[in-house]
C-alpha cells in the first residue's frame, strides 16, 4: 500500500466515530422526497467548519459542496443520496426512526454520512489534490427523480464541470467491507405498468348477460409472463411483475372493470422497448378477443444505470491496493433495482459500486435486505466507504482513468 492510500484508510478509521454519529442522527429523523430541510441542516452543520463553496437550485434540497485543491486539473463528482423510504421501522436500535411511516431502509443515511466524512478527510489532505472535488448531496432518489432535478437546475454544469463521477450504495447482502461492481449495465431501468380491463358488470348467476373482466385479466397476466419468456432475448432480460389485481366489490356481482398494476425492469433500452410494445399488444388483443377492451398506461421510471468500465477499473485497483485483493469483486450480472444515478452517468463518465455492510454475526445471504423494515447495517464498514471515496477522488484527479 502506498503512503497516499494509507492516509485515506487510516484517516477514515480515525473519523469513523464521527461518521457513525452523523449517520445515526440522520437515521433518527428521516425525510421523504425532494425537500429535506432537517437532513440538509444536519449535513451543512457537519461541514460548517470546512472551506467549501456551496451551490443549490430551486427544484429540490439538493446541493453541491466544492473543495478546490492546489492543482488546477480535473474535477471529480462524488455523490451521496439523502432521502428515506415511506415505511415503518421494525428494529430495536436506539437511534430508530422517530418519524412514523418513514425509515432509512435503503442506507441513504450511511451514504450521506460517508460522503460528508470523505469531504472532511479530503479537506484535511487537500494539499494532495491536483484538482477539484464536488460533493453531490442528493434528495429524492426513491422514485422522485432527485438527480434529474439537480441536473435540470444546472448544478452539474456549473464550472468546473466534472470529468468523472463516482458513487456507492450499501447492501447488507455482500460481506462486510467488500466492494462489488461491474462495467456496463449495472442496475435496471424501471417502469410502472397499469392496465385497466373494461367489461360489462352483471349478476354473478348470469355471466352470459355480462362481460366478466376477471378471467380476461387473469389471462392477460399469464400471457404477459409467456411474452417475457418467449419474445424477449434471454440474454437481455426483463422482469415483469404484476403485483396488484383489483376488481369487484362483493361475491355475487361481476365487476365492470379490473385493474392490474406492476413493474417492468430491464437492463437495456432494446429489451425495455420490446417489453413495452409486448405489454400493449398482449393486453389489448386479449381483451379484444373477448369483446372487452384494455387501457394500458406505462409510466416511465429510471433509466438503466450504465457503469463506465474505466471508472470501475480505477475503483477496483484502488480498493485492492488499499484494502487487499479480496476487497473488491466483479459482479457477474446487473441487479434489477433501479437508480437515478443513471442520469448523472449519462452526462459524466463514472460508476457506482456496492459496499457490503452485513451486520456482525449475520450471514450476508440471509441478512434483511435494503427496503426491509428490519434492515440494519454494520457501521464499521463505513470506514471502507469513506476511504474509497477519498482514494478514488485523489487518484482520478492525479491520473484520470489510467
Sequence of secondary-structure elements:
HHEEEHEHEEEEEHEEEHEEHEHEH
Write out the CATH superfamily name of the largest domain: Zn peptidases
User: How much helical structure, as a percent, in the residues?
Assistant: 25-40%
Strand proportion, as a percent range, falls in 15-25%
- The strands making up the biggest β-sheet line up spatially as 1-2-4-3-5-16-6-15
Write down how many β-strands occur, each being a DSSP E stretch of 2 or more residues: 16
Which ranges are low-confidence, i.e. pLDDT below 50, for 5 or more consecutive residues? none
Number of domains: 2
CATH topology of the largest domain: Aminopeptidase
**Which structural class is indicated by helix and strand composition?**
alpha/beta
Overall mean confidence score, pLDDT: 97
Count of helical regions: 9
Oligomer: single chain
Radius of gyration, in angstroms, nearest whole number: 24 Å
What is the CA-CA span between the terminal residues? Answer: 18 Å
Query: Which outline best applies?
Result: elongated
Describe the protein's architecture and organization.
The protein is α/β, with parallel strands linked by helices. It is built from 9 helices and 16 strands. The protein has helices spanning 3-28, 37-47, 108-124, 146-152, 213-231, 269-289, 309-323, 341-347, 382-399, and strands spanning 53-56, 63-68, 75-81, 132-138, 164-171, 179-181, 184-187, 189-198, 202-203, 238-247, 253-254, 257-266, 293-300, 305-307, 328-330, 350-356. The strands form 4 sheets. The chain has an 8-stranded mixed sheet, with helices on both faces. Helix 1 crosses helix 9 (382-399), helix 5 packs antiparallel against helix 6 (269-289) and helix 7 packs across helix 9 (382-399). The longest helix has 26 residues, at 3-28. The model has no long low-confidence stretch (mean pLDDT 97).
Amino acid at each position: 500500500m502506498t503512503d497516499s492510500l494509507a492516509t485515506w484508510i487510516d484517516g477514515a478509521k480515525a473519523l469513523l466515530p464521527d461518521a457513525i454519529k452523523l449517520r445515526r442522527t440522520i437515521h433518527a429523523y428521516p425525510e421523504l422526497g425532494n425537500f429535506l430541510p432537517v437532513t440538509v441542516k444536519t449535513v451543512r452543520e457537519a461541514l460548517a467548519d470546512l472551506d467549501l463553496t456551496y451551490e443549490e437550485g430551486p427544484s429540490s434540497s439538493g446541493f453541491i459542496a466544492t473543495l478546490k485543491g492546489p492543482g488546477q486539473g480535473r474535477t471529480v463528482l462524488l455523490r451521496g443520496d439523502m432521502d428515506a423510504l415511506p415505511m415503518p421501522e421494525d428494529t430495536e436500535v436506539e437511534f430508530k426512526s422517530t418519524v412514523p411511516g418513514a425509515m432509512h431502509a435503503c442506507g441513504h443515511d450511511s451514504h450521506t454520512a460517508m460522503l460528508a466524512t470523505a469531504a472532511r478527510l479530503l479537506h484535511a489532505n487537500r494539499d494532495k489534490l491536483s484538482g477539484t472535488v464536488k460533493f453531490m448531496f442528493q434528495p429524492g432518489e426513491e422514485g422522485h427523480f432527485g438527480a434529474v432535478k439537480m441536473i435540470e437546475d444546472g448544478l452539474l454544469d456549473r464550472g468546473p464541470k466534472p470529468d468523472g463521477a463516482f458513487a456507492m450504495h450499501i447492501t447488507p447482502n455482500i460481506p462486510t467491507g467488500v466492494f462489488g461492481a461491474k462495467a456496463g449495465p449495472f442496475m435496471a431501468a424501471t417502469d410502472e405498468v397499469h392496465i385497466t380491463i373494461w367489461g360489462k358488470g352483471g349478476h354473478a348467476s348470469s355471466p352470459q348477460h355480462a362481460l366478466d373482466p376477471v378471467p380476461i385479466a387473469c389471462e392477460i397476466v399469464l400471457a404477459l409472463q409467456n411474452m417475457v419468456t418467449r419474445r424477449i432475448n434471454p440474454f437481455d432480460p426483463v422482469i415483469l411483475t404484476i403485483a396488484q389485481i383489483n376488481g369487484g366489490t362483493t361475491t355475487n356481482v361481476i365487476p365492470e372493470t379490473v385493474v392490474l398494476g406492476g413493474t417492468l425492469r430491464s437492463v437495456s433500452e432494446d429489451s425495455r422497448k420490446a417489453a413495452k410494445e409486448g405489454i400493449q399488444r398482449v393486453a389489448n388483443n386479449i381483451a379484444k378477443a373477448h369483446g372487452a377492451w384494455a387501457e394500458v398506461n406505462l409510466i416511465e421510471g429510471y433509466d438503466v444505470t450504465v457503469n463506465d468500465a474505466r471508472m470501475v477499473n480505477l475503483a477496483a485497483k484502488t480498493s485492492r491496493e488499499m484494502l487487499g485483493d479480496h476487497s473488491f469483486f466483479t459482479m457477474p450480472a446487473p441487479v434489477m433495482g433501479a437508480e437515478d444515478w443513471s442520469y448523472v452517468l449519462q452526462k459524466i463518465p463514472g460508476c457506482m459500486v456496492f459496499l457490503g455492510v452485513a451486520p456482525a454475526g449475520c450471514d450476508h445471504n440471509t441478512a434483511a435486505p435494503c427496503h426491509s423494515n428490519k434492515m440494519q447495517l454494520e457501521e464499521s464498514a463505513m470506514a471502507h466507504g469513506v476511504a474509497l471515496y477519498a482514494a478514488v477522488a485523489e487518484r482520478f484527479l492525479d491520473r484520470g482513468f489510467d
